[in-house]
Design a protein that fits this description.
Shape: globular
Keywords: Membrane, Transmembrane, Transmembrane helix
Membrane topology: Multi-pass membrane protein
Organism: Aminobacter niigataensis
Protein name: Tryptophan-rich sensory protein
CATH topology: Ferritin
Number of strands: 0
Number of domains: 1
Order of helices and strands: HHHHHHH
Distance between the termini: 51 Å
Number of helices: 7
InterPro entries: TspO/MBR-related_sf, TspO_MBR
Radius of gyration: 16 Å
Low-confidence stretches: none
Largest sheet: none
CATH class: Mainly Alpha
Mean pLDDT: 96
CATH architecture: Up-down Bundle
CATH superfamily: TspO/MBR protein
């Protein structure tokens, strides 16, 4: 039962935190007025994609926590979550795509580092981050393109 409660706590923190930050920093008129690249997805896609990714991130963090709660992989998991939660307020809240680009590049580095360290103790946790890494790599390209075009 304790393991299930811990998993639930991870899901609540990650999915709940991500949802709250997304709600507080919804794209508004500023974002609508920006020039965007041809590959910019429609706004409605972000909510469902992030919901799935946040659940995968929570499960990966929970799995690593079970094996090594104070290890390097867990520290990188925390770092990536902090950076993830900083990106929307930086991009949408502060309206600073250049600064947000720095945040997302650091996020991608933390995700990659987590995958490397997690793979040594829990290959499943590392692989759970693969879709997240792919999406954040795409988001990095999108962020860079928006910065460049504006």
């Amino acid at each position: 039962m304790s393991r299930l409660l811990t998993l639930l706590a991870f899901v609540v923190v990650v999915l709940g935190g991500g949802t709250l930050i997304g709600y507080v920093t919804l794209p508004g008129d500023w974002y609508a007025g920006l020039a965007k690249p041809f590959f910019n997805p429609p706004n409605w896609i972000f909510g469902p994609v992030w919901s799935v990714l946040y659940i995968l991130v929570a499960i990966a963090g929970w799995r690593v926590w079970q094996r090594d709660p104070w290890g390097g992989a867990m520290r990188l998991w925390i770092a990536q979550l902090v950076l993830n939660f900083l990106w929307s307020p930086t991009f949408f809240g502060l309206q600073q795509p250049g600064l947000a680009l720095l945040v997302i590049v650091a996020l991608l580095g933390a995700i990659s580092g987590f995958m490397v360290l997690a793979s040594r103790k829990d290959g499943i946790a590392a692989w759970l981050f693969a879709p997240y890494a792919a999406w954040v790599a795409f988001a990095t390209l999108l962020n860079a393109s928006i910065w460049w075009l504006n």
